[in-house]
Amino acid sequence: MTERPNRQILLVERPRGKLEESQFKLIDSTIGDPGPGELLVRTVLLSIDPANRAWMQGRTYREQLGAGEVMAGGALCEVVAANGAPIAPGSIVQCEPGWQEYAVVPANRILPVAVRGALSHHMSVLGITGLTAYHGMLDVGRPKKGETVVVSAAAGATGSVAGQIARIIGARVVGVTGSDDKNRLIERDLSFDAAVNHRSDKLREDLAAACPNGIDVYFDNVGGRVLEAVLPLMRTHGRIVCCGAVSQYDSATPAPGPAGVPGQLIVKRLRMEGFLVSDYIGEWAEAQGQLAAWVAAGELAVLEDIVEGLESAPRALIGILAGDNVGKRMVRVAPDPT
Ligand SMILES: NC(=O)c1ccc[n+]([C@@H]2O[C@H](COP(=O)([O-])OP(=O)(O)OC[C@H]3O[C@@H](n4cnc5c(N)ncnc54)[C@H](OP(=O)(O)O)[C@@H]3O)[C@@H](O)[C@H]2O)c1
Predict the structure, then answer these.
(1) How many Å apart are CA 219 and CA 136, to the nearest integer?
(2) Where are the strands (E) in the chain, listed by range?
């Protein structure tokens, strides 16, 4: 039995209000060999997702996180050893090791990654958030050429890709972000047609000015106040893609609302539809092929936000909930394998 030194970040208590760094603890520990049907993996890039915070609230697609556990999270990892599983040491896999340098994971809970280009792209544009943007926009939102598409959290991992896909389809794309700098960036570097700041006191008027013909598709990453401002501007038979509700994650009790549901849905015959990216797992390879082709052709710009060191993970998560990221936030725990 080999014992390797490990470092782990525990969630020491569930937040009752806003998430704080004091609710996490970095510890030194050791990790043993994988058992039958298990892999020992080394975390390379740890994904930082608003969902990490939602998992602490419960009421999601997975069990509520408990105090004292290693903080949960997905990652790109290098296989160190495989016990009875047909995967070679050195391979890259997508899995859920949690916030730690090494983890033992079941071999049937990993996805092998055929690395093409930059490894980080397999976490951003070709990873979960890129795939979420792809399937959410094309399979749920189904924008058409000339339609107006609004995307919230538009400078974030999912929104930046979702907005660009709508633009590639030929829609007029309006982004909503929380800062004027982000708005300048999405207009200049991602070719959004217009951008609105959700911190404005006249959000609805700003949105109306940016969408003079109304809104055909709203790709909703945030819920709350932005969704409420969008609803009266939706056109008849418009589609609202319920991707996430990040405005509601960092508290003990999500706000009720928004006003306008179901009234606006009825009057305008809107389709408001939620989805999980995992619903489309059988189509991921095809989606990744298209996303990679758009990147290679220079039609889809990739925004990444890489923070160094496992110990930075709590701050990185608290920051993403406050909007301090541009593009896909991840934490580098180890250098890319050579
Ligand atoms: N359905 C699925 O299968 C699926 C899969 C992955 C992710 N998601 C969801 O997709 C959404 C985006 O996730 P992501 O990983 O791409 O994160 P992200 O957009 O990179 O980061 C979150 C962004 O949300 C914005 N935000 C935070 N609080 C806000 C508020 N109160 N009002 C408006 N905007 C706020 C911030 O940007 P600003 O500066 O613009 O405020 C922040 O940068 C999340 O809701 C997530 O849960 C869903």
Answers:
(1) 8
(2) 4-11, 24-31, 38-47, 69-70, 75-83, 92-95, 102-106, 111-112, 148-152, 172-177, 194-197, 215-220, 234-242, 271-274, 304-308, 328-332
Q: Side chain identity at 84, as an amino acid letter?
A: G
Distance 157 CA to ligand 1 centre (A): 8
- State how beta strands 92-95 and 111-112 pair: antiparallel
**Domains identified in the chain and CATH numbers:** 4-124+303-332 (3.90.180.10), 128-278 (3.40.50.720)
Separation of 153 CA from ligand 1 center, angstroms?
A: 5
| Ligand 1 atom at minimal distance to the Cα of residue 305 | 20
How far lies 322's CA from each of 177, 184, 238, 315, 328, in Å? 11, 19, 30, 11, 14
Q: 3-58: per-residue pLDDT in tens?
A: 999 999 999 999 989 999 999 999 999 999 999 999 999 999 999 999 999 999 88
Tokens at 53, concatenated: 């915070």
CA–CA separation, 22 vs 17, rounded Å? 13
- The rounded distance, in Å, linking the Cα atoms of 75 and 333 is 10
Identify the CA nearest to 32 among candidates 92, 74, 80: 80
pTM value? Answer: 0.97
Cα-to-centroid distance, 206 and ligand 1 (Å): 21
Span 219-228, average pLDDT:
97
Tokens of 60: 């999601």
Residue listed under structure tokens 């959000």: 203
Q: Are 39 and 79 in contact (CB under 8 A)?
A: yes
